[in-house]
Design goal:
By secondary structure, this protein is of the alpha/beta class. It has 13 helices and 23 strands. It has a nine-stranded mixed β-sheet with strand order 6-5-7-8-9-10-11-18-17, with helices on both faces. The chain has a four-stranded antiparallel β-sheet with strand order 12-13-16-15.
C-alpha cells in the first residue's frame, strides 16, 4: 500500500534510523490521525516478524528513501501540526511478547492538552534548540524533539551517540535542551576529562537551560557532577515508562532528598499499595491500552472512588510525607532467595555508595539450595573482598551478593537499561 492511500487510524511501522525527516514523518502521521509505530531498525528478521504479527501495521517503512518520499508528499496542513494521538511505542518486552501502547485518537481538546502539558512542564519555546542523543524510536527523546518542534524550536540530530560528535554539536549548535541517560553522561564526562587532560579544555555548557535524564538509576557521584557541570537549576530527573509519565524532579530537590525521583507531574496523582506497587492517576489524554490485549490492559488499570483511573507498570516504591517518590525496584527484576524477596535496585543503590564502584547491576542466577543466588556485576576498582565487607555493614544477609563479577562496562540497551538477562548467562 502507498502511504497516500492510508486512512485515518492507520498504523505505520517505522523500521528506520532516526533523523529530522523521521521526526517530520512521525509528526505528520500523528497530525493526520495515524499511528506511527517507532521500532528499532536493528531488529532481526525473526524479531520483526514476531512484533509486526501483534501490531498489524497497514504499512511498513524500512528505508530512508521511503521516509524522504513520504515527507516530501505530506500535505502542508499536516506539517508540524497538532498531533491527534500519541506514537504507538511498544513495551520493552521483559516478559512475553512486547505489546503496542495505544492511545486511540484524541479529541482536539485532549490533543491540545497533551501538547500543553509537555510545554508547560519543560518550558519549550521557539528559542529552544534540542540536541538528540538517544535513538528517536524511543519515547523520551522523540517526545522532547516533538515538544521543541511544536513550539517552533529547532531540533539537532547529529547521529548515533558518540562523545566527540555530541561535544562538537554542543560547541557548534549551542543547544538549550537535551534528554540523556546516565550512560551518556558517564561517557561525556570521561571524554571531557580527556580533553581537559590534553589541554583542549571542556566544552562551554552555559547554553543549556534544561538537561533531563531518566531510563536508569543515576549513581550519586554522577548526579552531583551533573549538577556541578551544568547551569544552576537546569538539570532534572523524571520517572516514567513506555506507558506514561509519573514524576519530575529538579536536581536541587534530589540534593535535599537523595534517591527521590520527584513528585507527581502536574495533573497526576500517585498512590502506593501496601505491597509497594505504584499507581498513577492520569488525565483522559494520557489513557492507553495494550493493543489487541484487553486482559493485560485490564490488569494495568483500576478505577478510583472519584471516577478517575490509575495505571501501574508493576514498579515498586515508597512515598514520603511530602509526596516524593522513591523507587524500590521493578517487579520483573524481583529475586527470591531462600523465600526472601530481594529488589536489585536497593542492593545497587547501597553498593554505589562505595567509592570504588562506578556502576553496578544486581541479578540472580539459579541456585539449588536458595532458589536464586544474588550476584553483582561491578564496574570500578573495588575488590570483591572490599565489596563483601561493605555489604555486610549495610545489607541484611539475604540481600548481600554472593558473587561479584568485574566488567569494563555493563551491557545496556541504547536507552541505558541494563540487560540483566545477559549478565545471568
Amino acid at each position: 500500500m502507498d502511504h497516500l492511500e492510508l486512512r485515518e487510524g492507520a498504523r505505520v511501522a517505522l523500521l528506520v534510523s532516526g533523523s529530522l525527516d523521521y521526526l517530520d514523518l512521525v509528526m505528520s502521521l500523528l497530525a493526520a490521525g495515524m499511528f506511527p509505530i517507532p521500532l528499532d531498525p536493528r531488529l532481526t528478521a525473526y524479531e520483526r516478524e514476531r512484533l509486526l504479527a501483534t501490531l498489524h501495521p497497514d504499512l511498513v517503512v524500512d528505508s530512508a528513501d521511503q521516509v524522504a518520499a513520504m515527507v516530501a508528499n505530506t500535505p502542508a496542513r499536516f506539517r508540524r501540526a497538532l498531533p491527534r494521538a500519541r506514537p504507538m511505542h511498544v513495551t520493552s518486552g521483559t516478559t512475553g511478547t512486547p505489546k503496542g501502547v495505544y492511545s486511540g485518537l484524541l479529541t482536539e481538546a485532549d490533543a491540545a492538552a497533551l501538547v500543553a502539558e509537555e510545554r508547560d512542564l519543560w518550558g519549550f519555546t521557539d528559542a529552544d534548540v534540542n540536541l538528540v542523543l538517544s535513538p528517536l524510536y524511543h519515547s523520551a527523546p522523540l517526545r522532547f524533539a516533538m515538544g521543541t518542534a511544536l513550539a517552533g524550536g529547532r531540533v539537532v540530530a547529529p547521529g548515533g551517540f558518540d562523545p566527540a560528535r555530541i561535544t562538537g554539536a554542543i560547541e557548534r549548535e549551542r543547544p538549550t535542551t537535551m534528554f540523556c541517560v546516565p550512560a551518556h553522561l558517564q561517557r561525556l564526562f570521561a571524554h571531557w576529562d580527556a580533553l581537559a587532560d590534553s589541554g583542549a579544555g571542556r566544552p562551554d555548557l552555559s547554553c543549556f537551560r534544561l538537561v533531563a535524564h531518566a531510563g536508569a538509576p543515576c549513581p550519586p557521584a554522577l548526579k552531583r557532577r551533573l549538577i556541578e557541570a551544568f547551569p544552576p537549576g537546569s538539570t532534572w530527573e523524571f520517572y516514567g515508562s513506555t506507558e506514561g509519565q509519573f514524576t519530575a524532579c529538579h536536581s536541587e530537590e534530589w540534593l535535599e532528598r537523595p534517591g527521590t525521583v520527584g513528585r507527581a507531574r502536574p495533573g497526576r496523582a500517585l498512590e502506593v499499595d501496601a505491597d509497594g506497587t505504584i499507581w498513577c492517576t492520569v488525565p483522559p489524554y494520557a489513557r492507553f491500552e495494550y493493543f489487541g490485549d484487553p486482559e493485560r490492559t485490564a490488569t494495568a488499570w483500576r478505577a478510583r472512588p472519584d471516577g478517575t483511573s490509575a495505571f501501574t507498570v508493576g514498579d515498586l516504591g515508597r512515598l514520603d510525607a511530602d509526596g516524593y517518590l522513591y523507587l524500590d525496584g521493578r517487579r520483573e527484576d524481583l529475586l527470591i532467595t531462600g523465600g526472601v524477596n530481594v529488589y536489585p535496585l536497593e542492593v545497587e543503590n547501597t553498593l554505589r555508595e562505595h567509592p570504588g564502584v562506578e556502576d553496578v547491576a544486581v541479578y540472580g542466577v539459579p541456585d539449588e539450595h536458595w532458589g536464586q543466588r544474588v550476584c553483582a556485576a561491578v564496574v570500578g576498582t573495588a575488590t570483591a573482598a572490599e565489596l563483601d565487607a561493605f555489604a555486610r555493614e549495610r545489607l541484611a544477609p539475604p540481600k548481600r551478593p554472593k558473587t561479584y563479577r568485574h566488567l569494563d562496562d555493563l551491557p545496556r540497551t541504547p536507552t541505558g537499561k541494563v540487560l540483566r538477562d545477559q549478565l545471568s548467562r
